Amino acid sequence: MKYLITGATGNIGSLVTERLIGAGATPCLLTRKPEKTRTVFGDRVEIRLGNLAGSRTDLADVFQGCDALFLINIGPHLGERDRTCALAERDAGVRHLVKLSTLDVETGVGTGPWHARGEEAIRASGVYHTFIRSSALMSNALSWADSIRDDGVLSSSTGDGKIAFIHPDDIADVVVSILTGREPRNESPVITGPEALSYRRMATAIGEAIGISVRYETLSDADAMTDALLWADHAYAEALVDIWRAIREGRLATVSDGVQQLLRRPPKNFGDWIDENVGYFAKKAGRSQ
Ligand SMILES: NC(=O)c1ccc[n+]([C@@H]2O[C@H](COP(=O)([O-])OP(=O)(O)OC[C@H]3O[C@@H](n4cnc5c(N)ncnc54)[C@H](OP(=O)(O)O)[C@@H]3O)[C@@H](O)[C@H]2O)c1
Can you tell me the distance from the alpha carbon of 276 to that of 45, in angstroms, rounded to the nearest whole number? Predict the structure, then answer.
C-alpha cells in the first residue's frame, strides 16, 4: 500500500506520518515546503511537491501511484479544496480518501459548515471515503499556556459548559487504523475524548500539575472575539467564538465510544495529556511541577 499524507507538518498529519513509518511504510507527503518537510522526516518519506490550493490536474499528478489519501484542508474555502482533491484522487485512481473532519458537521457550529461542504463534495465525487468527525483537540489547550504560566489565569467565553477534548494520539491511531486496516465503507465515525469537562475544570487540573491555583475568568463573546483576532483571521475567529458559545450553551458536550469501537481500547484522558505536556505550562516561570 502507498499512502499519500497531507498536512504532515501539522498536528495530526505529523503523528499519522510517524505511525506509518513506524509500521514500515514510506509514506508520500504532499507539501508546499519540501525543505521543512525533509528536515522533519529525513529520507524516511517520499516528498511530493504540491499545493492543496492547486488545480485538479496538478493534484492528480501528485496523487499518482497511491492507494489511499489522508486529507487535511483548512480555512473557509476547504470545501472547494476537498472537492478538487476528491476529483483529482478519482483521476489518479486512488482507492480511499480519509478526511479529517469535525464533529461540528453534526452541530452546524464553528467550522462545521466548512467541513459539511467538503464532505458533500467528496460524497458527490463518488470516491470511497471515510470522514473522521473529531471533537476538539486537547492540544488546543496549549494556547492557554502563557496566561496560565505567567498570570495563573484562564479566560474564556465557554462559562461552565463542557466539551470532550480528544487526545491527538487517538485521532492519529484512528486514522492509521482506517488507512491501513479497513476496506473503505463510506463511513463517518464520531470520535471524542472520554469525558466532557469545563474549561475551568481543565485549567484547575493543569494548575494542580504545576503546583499553582489557576483562576478562571468568564469573557463576553465580544471580548473573546477581540482576543481571537490577535492571532486568527476574521473567519476563523468568528468560527471559534461560535464554538465557545456553543460549549457555554451545552451544545458540544457529546461523548462518543468511537475510539473504543475503532481501536478496541479506551481514549486517553485529559490527565494523560497534561502529564505529557506539563512542561509547556511550567517551564518559563520556573515553577516546580
Ligand atoms: N483543532 C481542533 O480542535 C480540530 C478539531 C476537529 C477537526 N479539526 C480540523 O483539523 C484540521 C487541521 O488539522 P491540524 O491541526 O493537524 O493542522 P495544522 O496543525 O493546522 O496544520 C495544517 C497543515 O496543512 C498544511 N497546509 C496548509 N495549507 C496548505 C496548502 N495550501 N497546501 C499544502 N499543505 C497545506 C500545512 O503545511 P505547511 O507546513 O505548508 O504550512 C500543515 O501541515 C482542520 O481541518 C480542522 O478543522 C481541528
Answer: 27
Lowest mean pLDDT among 175-184, 204-213, 217-226, 271-280: 175-184
Which set of grid coordinates corresponds to residue 214?
489557576
Overall number of domains in the chain: 1
The answer, yes or no, to whether any atom of ligand 1 lies below 6 A from the CB of 11, is yes
H or E element that contains 30: strand 28-31
Q: Is the CB of 53 under 6 A from ligand 1?
A: yes
Write out the three cell numbers for 11: 498536528
3-state secondary structure of 126: coil
The verdict on residue 140 lying in a domain is no
Cross-strand bridge partners of residue 154:
216
Residue 144: other Cβ atoms inside 10 A:
20
What type of residue is 74? I
- Which residue range(s) make up the domain with 179? 3-135+167-191
* Residue-wise pLDDT tens digits, 45-73: 999 999 999 999 999 999 999 999 999 99
Average pLDDT taken over every residue of the chain: 96
The one-letter code for the residue type at 56 is R
- Do the beta carbons of residue 189 and residue 105 sit within 8 Å? no
Give the confidence band of 273 by pLDDT, cuts at 50, 70, 90: very high
**Predicted pLDDT at 255:** 98
Helix (H/G/I), strand (E/B), else coil: 84: helix
| Residue 284: pLDDT band with limits 50, 70, 90 | low
- Could you tell me if residue 278 is inside a domain? no
pLDDT score, position 287: 46
Q: Which helix (H) or strand (E) holds 68?
A: strand 68-71
Task: Name the residue with the closest Cα to ligand 1, atom 24.
Answer: 7
How many whole angstroms from 148 Cα to the centroid of ligand 1?
25
